[in-house]
Amino acid sequence: MQKDSGKNYGRLVRQIGLVTTIPMIFVAGPLVGYWIGEWVDRSFGSDPWGKIVLSILGFVASIKQVTTVIRRWIKEEEKD
Amino acid sequence: MSVEAVHEVAEHIAPHAEKAPEGLKELANWVTLISEKWHGAPWADFLHRWENVVFAWMIAFGLIGIAFLGTRKSREIPGPLQNLLETLAEAVDHFITDVLGERGRKFVPFIGTLFLYILCQNLIGVVPGMKSPTSSLNTTVALAITVFFYVQWTGLRENGVLGYIDHLLGSPRDVVGWIMVPLNFPLHILEELIRPLSLSLRLFGNILGEDSLIAAFVTLGITALAFFHIPVGLPLQFPFMMLALLTGTIQAVVFSILTTIYISLMLPHHEESHH
Lengths: 80, 275
Known about the structure:
The complex is a heterodimer.
Chain A: H1 2-44, H2 49-79
Helix pairs in contact in A: 1-2
Chain B: H1 3-13, E1 18-19, E2 25-26, H2 30-37, H3 42-49, H4 51-71, H5 80-100, H6 108-123, H7 137-168, H8 175-179, H9 181-224, H10 238-266, H11 269-274
Helix pairs in contact in B: 2-3, 4-5, 4-6, 6-10, 7-9, 7-10, 9-10
């Protein structure tokens, strides 16, 4: 029983951690896209299209990553 | 006594609550005390400038020392320290092989070290006179970059160069897959670059937040008793220190979980599905 409560506590800690990760991924995605876009715009004189396109791509990438992490996590939970 | 006078007394009693460059309060540690005592001495300024590195190295050497002492004379019936280390190693091994399977055992040293190192870095901020190196973005970025390169290297080692490129292209196997390559490739690159940023920002933000909260409540506790002109304060920071113990542990666990997940996503797909 003590082992069960320890396992549940561990699971809770991991769940809290992963849930708090999601907003940070959503921030990081467009940010990375913007920075790369800025570099593209400076290098190829495409201002502001590089920033716009890559920020959107960054956002899409962050959605993709969040779904990957959640899917992966659900798989682990089902195994438990 | 006016509010300004109370503030003046509190600042005098608690000079330890100094201003961080970002404008957030942080508690003084032994390095800042030394740099105040020997103000202007080049070695003291050097220590102060590199205080995060000093604490990070302190923890690293502390962990190395404990590991050395615990494993120096391994016995079949372990002593207390060997027992503690074996329990820790077993827990980390179980946690990683649970996600990655038996072949994940080779990643245990890296992820286990990362976990213990980050855990100690997070929790040391609760000890008076110490500072969490992870409350500095430089430390967390360094950790995240280490993970980034380790994951890429694992991808190259496990998949080979062609397999790694195939992975970045989204593993196209049919016409639709190849049509999607121009979209999948930049998305995949961006995904890889997002990981170190999100890992480092989350750890840094959480630990800096905790430490700033504790510093703010230490100052408040001292200000509350400033009328008595005594060098003690109300322990208002105590509940937040308990919270810091919890969040510090959570952040170390999450950093390790995400590293494990990133490695598992880099492994060849048949291994993933096998487990």
